[in-house]
């Protein structure tokens, strides 16, 4: 059975925003969907989040797909980067993701541990070949330039959606058909 892991971001939780909707839609299509509550969401660190995800997935396979939101995206990329030599996953959909530490007014580098080590993009591509990056045209936290970074470094398909802010429930986003569309595309 194909599995999909929905990984929320900083201060997120499984039932927030569009995740319950996407979970139901994917389950209706026959996927096993895992939506964990990531630990320490108010003060996340890579040292806690990466082993948590690794333990959750246990034995990664090409039938495993990942959908990340915001901080969940770099968590997924770091997870893929650290897979064992013979491990591969099927693909990842990165929603409002970023591949470098954030830079917006009021941000005090609370997520810096996710970027202390240089990202080995080639290693990530060795373990996964299907990436989609979905960004909003007006995200107040994550710049649209991250789409270009993911395109350049991962050969990701990039999509810009108008006026979706940060794709979160706080902005009224409780359904996200584009996420479903691309999970289905990369998993076939």
Tell me about this structure.
- The protein has helices at residues 19-28, 46-57, 71-81, 121-127, 145-154, 177-186, and strands spanning 3-7, 32-34, 64-69, 91-95, 131-136, 157-161.
- It has 188 residues and is of the alpha/beta class.
- A six-stranded parallel beta sheet has the order 2-1-3-4-5-6, sandwiched between helices.
- Helix 5 (145-154) links the parallel strand 5 and strand 6 (157-161).
- The model has no long low-confidence stretch (mean pLDDT 97).
Task: Tag the structure with descriptive keywords.
alpha/beta; 6-stranded parallel β-sheet; 32% helix; 188 residues; 6 strands; globular; 16% strand; 6 helices
Task: Describe the secondary-structure layout.
Blueprint: E1 3-7, H1 19-28, E2 32-34, H2 46-57, E3 64-69, H3 71-81, E4 91-95, H4 121-127, E5 131-136, H5 145-154, E6 157-161, H6 177-186
List the strand order in the largest sheet: 2-1-3-4-5-6
Q: Which residues sit in consecutive blocks of at least 5 with pLDDT less than 50?
A: none
Instruction: Please give the oligomerization state of what you see.
Output: single chain
Span from first to last CA?
13 Å
Helix count, DSSP H or I runs of 4 or more residues: 6
Mean pLDDT: 97
Kindly summarize this structure in a few lines:
This protein has 188 residues and is an alpha/beta fold. The chain has helices spanning 19-28, 46-57, 71-81, 121-127, 145-154, 177-186; strands spanning 3-7, 32-34, 64-69, 91-95, 131-136, 157-161. Strands 2-1-3-4-5-6 form a 6-stranded parallel sheet, with helices on both faces.
